[in-house]
Amino acid sequence: SILVLGSVNVDITSYGARLPAPGETVHAESYAIALGGKGANQAVAAARLGGDAKLAGRTGTDAFGQMARDWLARTGVDTGPLWQDPDHPTGIASIGVSRDGENAITVVGGANMAIGAEDVARLDSAFASAKVLLLQLETPLAAGLAAAGKMRAAGGMTVLDPAPAPRAPFGSEVWRAVDAMTPNETETEALTGLRPTDSASAARAASILIERGLRIAVIKMGAGGVYWRAPEGEGHLPAMHVTAIDTVAAGDCFNGGLAFALARGDSLPEALRIANACGALATTRRGASDAAPTLAEVESLLKS
Ligand code: ADP
Predict the structure, then answer these.
(1) Domains of the chain
(2) Strand 91-98, strand 9-16: pairing
């Protein structure tokens, strides 16, 4: 199975003519409420493909927490390890989108930021059955690293999506604790100082990540596809040809797909082909977790 330790948010998006200036109130035209948070998005992406995905983390005991749990359960994500925290509110993202496509986002981490050692301790039985642990940076990293240690001891691997981009360099313990990292272009630049604009610059950035002690570097390059480097080799996979309309959560669908394929025993190059197709399909649909493809859709894109 796939174990995700990460964030759960309720995204509240309002669509109006323009964004408000500080101190101003504007009337927008419509709004949408959806499940978000990188942890939830990645778990949903793995479950949509048919993976046995468990999501660990926290919501509050409030109505938004119940909404998020219902959404997750409906997509088949196992919310057993998702703790209901009586002391913190469910995380929310308050998103404004203007007619010209500009956005302004405020995230309140709430219960997500309270994740700690107790959450990892509660997970004990989950490590025995999990093959892949997925982490991101919307929840406290210390708990993620503790989970990575347990995952390795149980014989599984950990993939850290360093998103949102870290503000301070990772210590050496981070590079050693996780098996793979999957930075996008911005995150690669934050980690290495190099912007991966083509396969030569991506190869240089990947080498820097490997020199720090990482085993598998996977650089997500948007419409440029993905560059990877690992003990079994390295290479560039061009992006699949699709009509991209909304790139929100492409990276999360990529990571969910990567974990799904690795957990079922695919080789790394094969798992990256699946992930690359998942990321591409996610850009053809609006929304975050709503944009995740099924395995049939992935297989049909890979055959085309
Ligand atoms: P993030 O969403 O984290 O910023 P990217 O934008 O790099 O990540 O997208 C993740 C992956 O999704 C890419 O590596 C690629 O596989 C796929 N992808 C993203 N944008 C496109 C696109 N325009 N066409 C095809 N595939 C895409």
Answers:
(1) 2-8+36-90+111-303 (3.40.1190.20)
(2) parallel
What distance in angstroms lies between residue 185's CA and the mean position of ligand 1's atoms? 10
State pLDDT tens for residues 129-159. 999 999 999 999 999 999 999 999 999 999 9
> Do strands 180-181 and 157-160 pair parallel, antiparallel, or not at all (unpaired)?
parallel
Q: Is the CB of 279 under 6 A from ligand 1?
A: yes
165 Cβ below 6 A of ligand 1: no
Q: Both ends of the chain: CA-CA distance in Å?
A: 29
pTM for the whole structure: 0.97
For residue 249, give the ligand 1 atom closest to its CA: 2
Whether the ipTM is more than 0.85: the answer is: yes
247-304 confidence digits (pLDDT tens): 889 999 999 999 999 999 999 999 999 999 999 999 999 888 889 999 999 999 999 9
